[in-house]
């Protein structure tokens, strides 16, 4: 199966070893051309205009202008696995660094992180530090036009089922529900005392991280969306099918 995760704006810097970015080594090699276009445009933007102007186009807050420098060094920076590169609420809850080796290998087989610059990459694919989001603007490039057809085509033939934990801005860069029947979008919700269910933001990410951590530790063999829902329930999560290729993860 395949679980799709969103990336995070916050990342660990640095990396290990002398290896540098190799687009040919990333999962889903069919995306190589789109990766070349996006990554070159990002690096050139960082090198050709002021950091302040680049930050404006990329949607980087003024207080974080210094992060543009990572883009200029995109092809010269040390690497680390994608699942370790990202930080923030989801990835702190997942805490991949603390997982035993067999659980990390399971993530490598079954989880992909959808980067705005590299597209979906394997959880253990090694990537550099960068700063770019699904809402960033690159000169002469519309991210949705660049990524959506190519990513959807790749996901349509990926070994299924596919569980989509991405945020909606990344879903737009490569929808999977609608291009295959055995896919489902996970919506995290809470139920109030009045019985009304509401979507969550901060705790949305935390719940997703905990779900994927449990998945990595259990290493279940999932053959259908219904099977994933059954596993999640057995692992202590409140999950239910909502129809229209959506499942709901309920949290307190």
Automatic annotation (TrEMBL):
<protein>
    <submittedName>
        <fullName>Peroxide stress protein YaaA</fullName>
    </submittedName>
</protein>
<dbReference type="Pfam" id="PF03883">
    <property type="entry name" value="H2O2_YaaD"/>
</dbReference>
<dbReference type="GO" id="GO:0005829">
    <property type="term" value="C:cytosol"/>
</dbReference>
<dbReference type="InterPro" id="IPR005583">
    <property type="entry name" value="YaaA"/>
</dbReference>
<dbReference type="GO" id="GO:0033194">
    <property type="term" value="P:response to hydroperoxide"/>
</dbReference>
